[in-house]
Amino acid sequence: MTTKTFLTTTALSVLLATSAVAQTADGTAAPMDDTAPMATDGMMDAEVMAPQSLEEMTVGDLTGTDVIDANGDSIGSIRDVIQGAGEAEAVVGIGGFLGIGRYDVALPLSDLNYNPEDRAISVTLTREELEALPEYEAGDIEPLPAETPLSSMIVDDMGTSDAPDAPATDAPMTDAPAADPMDDATMDMDTAPEDTTTNN
What we know:
- By secondary structure, the protein is α+β, with helices and mostly antiparallel strands.
- The protein has a domain at 54-139: SH3 type barrels, CATH 2.30.30.240.
- Helix content is 30%, strand content 16%.
- A hairpin with a 4-residue loop joins strand 2 (74-83) and strand 3.
- A six-stranded mixed sheet has the order 4-3-2-1-6-5.
- The radius of gyration is 39 Å and the shape is globular.
- It has helices at residues 2-26, 35-49, 59-62, 127-131, 181-191; strands at residues 66-68, 74-83, 88-94, 103-108, 113-115, 120-122.
């Protein structure tokens, strides 16, 4: 009786274990990792929030971005963003290894084109043309803070930036139009009193 009970219990245990393995293989009862959906959601949020243009980027977003020249070759990356004479400029580090042999040039932000699919900056100059430009030397120029938005520093073809214009003032106009002297003479003639005296 004891042996029969033991065999029955063993068979039941094997049957339950087989059923559990089968459900796991089907994926219907597989335990879910609580962290997996959060990681996926985070990746989706990152894709949605990724900048789609230079105007949506900050200095920190631009720094470190790969640069593609006119031939489609990767030539370096953005090292810093500085305030130039007319508008902000991106410092492009061309070539080199660990900073050795690198050639830096400063390009106006309006000369850069951002490709959101490749997350890279493209320029209309070749590497040879860029290396023919004067080399940038930092000196006492401090890079702009990482949180600085680029939208307020990009100058378009008309020489204007996207920075908001100064508010218009409601000062009243003080210059009155000049009076026409002919109008005054005409008014004087119209208002002159009529001579009612009679000649004897």
